[in-house]
Structure formats: C-alpha cells, structure tokens
Amino acid sequence: MEKAENRTTTYQPRLLLVDDDPAMVRIIGEMLAEFPNQRFAVTGEAALALARESIPDLILLDANLPNMTGFDVCEILKNDAKLARVPVIFITSHDAPALEVDAFRMGAADYVIKPLAAPRLQARVRAQLRLRHRVMEAQAAKPATTKPTGVRVLGILEDDMIEMHRRALEAIGALDLVKDCETALRLAQTREPDAIVLDARCCDNPCNAVRTLLAELAHVPIVVLADARDAETEQCTLDAGAADVIAKPAKSAVLQARVQGVLTSARQAREELRALMESAGGASVHPFPVIVRDTRTA
C-alpha cells in the first residue's frame, strides 16, 4: 500500500457535512479529522443557509434528509451562481444505480454508499479537492491554445470492457481506445483527451500508471475501473491522483454518468480560474492552495 504524506500548508479547506443523524455527522467529522475546518447541518434548510453564509470547498450531503431531501438541496445549490461550482459528495444507504445516475445528472461530484469506511471516504474527499486544485493549477500554467470543440475520451481498456462500455463512452464524445499507458501517452500528444478511463488490469501497477499519466496530463481527470473487492487499488489510485474509481462490474449508465461528472468538475474548475483571472484584471493568480496530501512511493 502506498503511504500518503502531509504537506505543510496554512490553508484548510472548508467542509460542510450534512446528515439528519447527529451521530453520523460526528462519525463523518471524526473520519475527516485531517480537515478540521468543518461546519455541520442536520437539515437541508440549515445546510443552504451555512453554504450561503460561507461558501464551502466541498459538501458531503446525505441523500435522505427529511422535508428537503439531499437531491432537493443539490438542485438548489447547482442553480445558485455562487454555489454551483462547489463539489457535492452524496452519502447514501441506497445502492441503486438509477439514483446514482440521477445524482450525477443533477451535478454531484461523487456518490458514496453507506456503511462508510474511513480510508475510502478520506481518499474520495482528497480526490475531489485535489482534482479542483490540479486542474486550476495546470490550466494557469498552460499556454493559451485553441482546442478542438467537443469532448474526447481516451480509454485504456481490455477487450471485455470495450465490448461492454463502448456505446456509453461514445455517447460522451469522440473515443480513442488503447491497451497500455505508453500507447496512451503517445496518442495524447496528437489527440489530447478531456478524460481518461483506465482499466486497472491494463497495467501491472495501476497506482504508478495514474502518476505517470498525470505527470504528462495533469489537467486531465482519470477514472479508474477496479474490482469491487479491491479496496487497496481504489484507495491508492485515488491518492495517486485519480478523479474517481468505479467498482466493476459497473453498469454502462453509471460509468457514463461518472465520467461526465468528472468532466463537469474539471470544467467548473477551469471556469472558476477564468473568473478569478478576470477579477484580478488578468494578473497571475494562484487560485487554490495545495490542501491535500501528495502521495509518494513508500
């Protein structure tokens, strides 16, 4: 297992934890103790009031709130110009693909099913915070270029995954398919992808594969397909920089929704950077301090 190291920083991301069960709020808060800047709400109305009072960097939202459900709260957030770009991680006891797809279509950044495991939740929170920072940092350092319109997805997939998910990935945009990371990197030099879908079986060490890809394509979100029982690969690829890990076997509708979700998160980070640059009159802006763990080989 890869070990994560803390990087000293003066900035702490603001988390908003929302669950109608105070005991669950406390448990989630303790699981995420590495992020001490936390605020709590037990109703949707209170969550919206807190978010408007001080815009959080990430919201963890119970789907099953009384009166105003988590889906209601998310819809209001995504229709609020000041809060629309805040990533929302749904926390739910419903392991239902249809609800998961609906959550991503509504604008969710992730969908985590209870019971919660601390390492998994921590890795997914770090992944969301890291994606926003990395995309903004890479975009700020990248020379201004004209990119072809439309979305391009690069799949590093075994034959069975191609057969199962080709149609769903083609529904997102243009699709390039390869079977190893070296070929993927060569192809990306001429056809830069907007997202990468990596089957963990296509490489001996998927965690190192994620690092290698991000070393050249830091602004491109990577979605990893890993066996549902392989918690170690899920955690280490997220800590290596993957934007999401999807448990196999996955329904094509879920894969499509999750890939579109990371594309939306990356687009919102770029929009946030542009807004910051414009508000600064074009001056150089370091938009978001490094606030999550970097991963180094143990």
Automatic annotation (TrEMBL):
One of its GO terms (cellular component) is protein-DNA complex. Keywords: DNA-binding, Phosphoprotein, Transcription, Transcription regulation, Two-component regulatory system. InterPro entries: CheY-like_superfamily, Sig_transdc_resp-reg_receiver, WalR-like. PROSITE patterns: RESPONSE_REGULATORY. Pfam families: Response_reg. The modification 4-aspartylphosphate is found at residues 62, 199. SUPFAM superfamilies: CheY-like. GO terms for molecular function: phosphorelay response regulator activity; transcription cis-regulatory region binding. Transmembrane segments: none annotated. Residues 14-129, 151-263 form the Response regulatory domain. One of its GO terms (biological process) is regulation of DNA-templated transcription. Gene3D superfamilies: 3.40.50.2300. PANTHER family: REGULATOR OF RPOS (PTHR48111), TWO-COMPONENT RESPONSE REGULATOR ORR33 (PTHR48111:SF1). This is Two component LuxR family transcriptional regulator. It comes from Caballeronia novacaledonica.
